[in-house]
Amino acid sequence: DLRKQARQLENELDLKLVSFSKLCTSYSSTRDGRRDRYSSDTTPLLNGSSQDRMFETMAVEIEQLLGKLTGINDKMAEYTNSAGVPSLNAALMHTLQRHRDILQDYTHEFHKTKANFLAIRERENLLGSVRKDIESYKSGSGVNNRRTELFLKEHEHLRNSDRLIEETISIAMATKENMTSQRGMLKSIQSKMNTLANRFPAVNSLIQRINLRKRRDSLILGAVIGVCTILLLLYAFH
């Protein structure tokens, strides 16, 4: 029984989706034909209020059918998972998966067609507003249009001047930062050089002291060796 209901809903959905797709196609072709047939900007677009209402009605009907089919699939899943049908479980799972795939395809097709229709309608509304703006702009006097153009040009010139001033200020700030960093580097180098210059005299005096102590030690060692040598000679001859 559940499978029979699912097949019936799938057939209804198939017919509804075909009609829904034809409605969207006719909406697009009607709009395109209307624009191609009239080249004047003052020609109004075709009023699609009836098609919009039909679209909304069909979309609600298809969503309701999709919801019913989803419920039937859920009931079939519950029946498949019940403990009373273990021998037919594989066949039932295959059937359930097939109906789920069909539901997924119908849902994807519905959302795709609906998105295309909404995109076409939004584009048409945008084009209609643009045409109205053009008409309102052309309906103004030539003097006002000329003044508006002059004001727009002056405004653009002011924006360009502001942009150039901002760029100049940014370059000056970057140059100031670089010079500040270079001054800091030069100060650090100068301090290091002063430190080295102050250390060199201390190092020289230390080296001189080491040399003097080394010479004194050499003289003392030489004197000791000479005395020891003389004593040995005296001892040997006596």
Automatic annotation (TrEMBL):
Membrane topology: Single-pass type IV membrane protein
Entries under InterPro entries matching the protein: Golgi_SNAP_su1 (IPR023601)
Parts of the chain that traverse the membrane: 219-237
Compartment(s): Golgi apparatus membrane
Record keywords, A-Z: Golgi apparatus, Membrane, Protein transport, Transmembrane, Transmembrane helix, Transport
Main location: Golgi
Example of a GO cellular component annotation carried by this entry: Golgi medial cisterna
One Pfam family, short name: V-SNARE_C
UniProt GO BP: endoplasmic reticulum to Golgi vesicle-mediated transport; inter-Golgi cisterna vesicle-mediated transport; protein transport; vesicle fusion
Coiled coil: none
Family statement: Belongs to the GOSR1 family.
Stated role: Involved in transport from the ER to the Golgi apparatus as well as in intra-Golgi transport. It belongs to a super-family of proteins called t-SNAREs or soluble NSF (N-ethylmaleimide-sensitive factor) attachment protein receptor. May play a protective role against hydrogen peroxide induced cytotoxicity under glutathione depleted conditions in neuronal cells by regulating the intracellular ROS levels via inhibition of p38 MAPK (MAPK11, MAPK12, MAPK13 and MAPK14). Participates in docking and fusion stage of ER to cis-Golgi transport.
Protein name according to UniProt: Golgi SNAP receptor complex member 1
Organism, as annotated: Machaerirhynchus nigripectus
